[in-house]
Design goal:
Number of strands: 0
Helix content: 55-70%
Radius of gyration: 22 Å
Shape: globular
Strand content: under 5%
Distance between the termini: 68 Å
Largest sheet: none
Number of helices: 12
Number of domains: 2
Structural class: mainly alpha
Order of helices and strands: HHHHHHHHHHHH
Length: about 280
């Protein structure tokens, strides 16, 4: 199946013109401005302005800088674009998007993992990839769910209110599937992504070498934040009381026990509220 290519980031630029090929799409700049405005107050409230600023800068690098144009030429640049979004911007911005509890907190972590894995693999399979580069609408149909699924996934992994067991399973499973995707791209015997068959040579790479580089990037650098998050949740679990590492919703009870005394908590269900403990 073939599609007429019309990439959102434009045609592949020659190397000598790349540095001047910035994406100044007014709708894109408006969207980034809206995201920045909506996440500013939670970031200010939590005193995480530097984290917020880093996330917004990464969005600009991914979509506005010449990296966007380079991703039309090189599949490996597309891999860099994607791991900037899903492995660096998403874990920085999730707490400002999910600043309040919502009905999404009731969705099982495994479904969030499945959603993100589906979007990630769709973006890196030949036919959906070519479809995504066939026009602006198709590009954003693929790009927006990929980024939002990554933000949601990182909430499940890093939010200390979520059960540690689920966070560890999801982070380990995501790390494994990222490794599998990287290995698939690295060891494929022939190039798979037709949009780059004629564009990579200008940058000194054959289509197969470009694809192998993309696989290595997805395999190692993109996986490091997940490995770090896994170790973070393990370390946090080890520092919690031994009866609570897998209970993500028991903080209110523990706080009440500290305030009222341990004996006040005896006989009270683990999910009991402060009001119940104080009666």
């Amino acid at each position: 199946m073939t599609f007429k290519l019309d990439p959102y980031c434009g045609s592949a630029p020659p190397p000598q013109l790349l540095i001047s090929d910035w994406n100044v799409d007014p709708y894109l700049l408006l969207a980034i401005s809206v995201i920045a405005a909506l996440t500013w107050l939670p970031a200010r409230r939590d005193n995480r302005i530097h984290q917020w600023l880093a996330a917004i800068v990464l969005l600009v690098v991914a979509f506005v800088s010449p990296l966007c144009a380079l991703s039309s030429a090189l599949f490996s640049a597309r891999a860099v674009h994607h791991f900037i979004l899903i492995s660096f911007a998403a874990p920085l911005i999730w707490r400002f998007i999910f600043s309040r509890e919502t009905f999404l907190d009731r969705v099982p972590s495994i479904l969030v993992f499945g959603f993100h894995t589906t979007m990630l693999w769709l973006w890196h399979l030949p036919v959906p990839y070519a479809w995504a580069l066939s026009g602006n609408a198709t590009y954003w149909i693929m790009e927006v769910p990929l980024f939002l699924s990554a933000v949601w996934l990182w909430k499940e992994i890093l939010d200390v209110r979520r059960p540690v067991g689920g966070a560890l399973i999801v982070s380990a499973a995501t790390l494994l599937q990222m490794t599998a995707l990287g290995a698939f791209l690295t060891f494929a015997p022939h190039p798979l992504f037709s949009p780059h068959f004629l564009t990579s040579q200008a940058y000194g790479l054959s289509p197969l070498e470009d694809q192998q580089l993309a696989g290595l990037l997805m395999w190692i650098p993109a996986s490091l934040p997940l490995a770090a998050a896994f170790l973070f949740r393990v370390a946090r679990a080890l520092t919690q009381p031994s009866n609570e590492p897998f209970a993500g919703r028991m903080q209110p009870r523990r706080d009440c026990c500290v305030r009222l005394s341990a004996r006040a908590c005896s006989g009270v269900p683990r999910n009991g509220s402060c009001e119940l403990l104080e009666r």
